[in-house]
Write a structure and sequence with these properties.
By secondary structure, the chain is mostly helical. It has one domain (2-382). The chain has helices spanning 2-40, 49-76, 100-131, 136-167, 171-188, 199-207, 231-255, 261-273, 275-282, 292-311, 331-351, and strands at 85-89, 92-96, 220-223, 226-229, 381-382. Strands 4-3-5 form a three-stranded antiparallel beta sheet. Strands 1-2 form a two-stranded antiparallel sheet. Helix 2 (49-76) packs antiparallel against helix 9, helix 3 packs parallel to helix 8 and helix 5 runs antiparallel to helix 10.
Length: 383
Amino acid sequence: MGALTTLAEVSADASSLRFVAYVGFILLVLAFLALDLGVFHRHAHEVRFKEAVAWSVVWLTCGVSFAGFVYLAYERHWVGLGVNVPVYTTSGIERTDVGGAVAAQQYLTGYLVEKSLAMDNIFVIAIIFSYFAIPAKFQHRVLFWGIVGALVMRGAMIGIAGQLVAKYLWVLIFFGAFLLLTSLKLAFAKGHSDPVKNPVIRLVGRIWPVHDRIDSQRFFMRIDGRRAITPLFLALITVEITDLVFAVDSIPAIFAITPDPFIVFTSNIFAILGLRALYFCLAALIQRFRYLKPALVLILAFVGVKLLLLSIPPYLHLVGLEPAKSIKIDTSVSMAVVLGLLGLATVASVLNPAGTGQTEGNLPSGGRALDIPRPIGHSESGE
């Protein structure tokens, strides 16, 4: 009985210490964001390719380097990390101590998966900006606040999903099936849906008047004494909705790597932080990578199958079969598959590039008039 009490006390102490790790990581992210908007991008300007590449290198370096912190923290059990954490085994989910090498490998694999899934998100964002005719110099502001909203939403979703997975292994069956269905949908999809047809966007346009000009980086304007939203705000809402949709795919995918919430959270957040710079690097080039979409389809299918192999065998008795141990695909195999598919897609795209003409799913040429209610007039003041 005393041993059980000691184990419970150790688990509680580790959980309290891990809270400090989460707080410290969130403060680090907030510092990054404050420097980004308050110092380096204080004034609206068009982000050039060289600047985008430089920032992509910075964010990529930060994301990959964090694996070093994960290694040391889990190896030395800083602030409770690596102590009594959930892990996948052939018996389901168990709690045990995790070493630095395993944790770092899980983090890097999760980071790669999230980065690869972000590629399709970038293409959709490019469509949104083109549809709303957002000038290049104002796009960074929309993406910045879109990322802030995404961090909050994903943090909440990861927290909920982590609790469900820890208590109910069968939840992974739904995650795996959903990822397989998503991969099939992505494989047979022909282009992307019209952003303004989203019912949320149309509802916002019914509630608030919409200003039809973009002459500053403000989200709200005053027209004839009335508060109106600008196309920048509509684009921001659409970006947030898009990220929510993609999060429904990416969060189950990251849980295929590990059920450890700290690894899931940090790898997901670092992948998002570099999304803005990556967008400005790849938005103009993404159509050239014609084999990226098949690679994403295969990655989603792979992680879906991985989750199903892990979660279905213990529940085979529900369909009249003998229950079996979970089949766990090693993290190193997952990393090799993701890197291999992305590498093959890149090489194949370079060797056999897409044509210069219109291709399926190309961006619309220029923005279109917004088919939503708006006032007529010029802005008098900004907010």
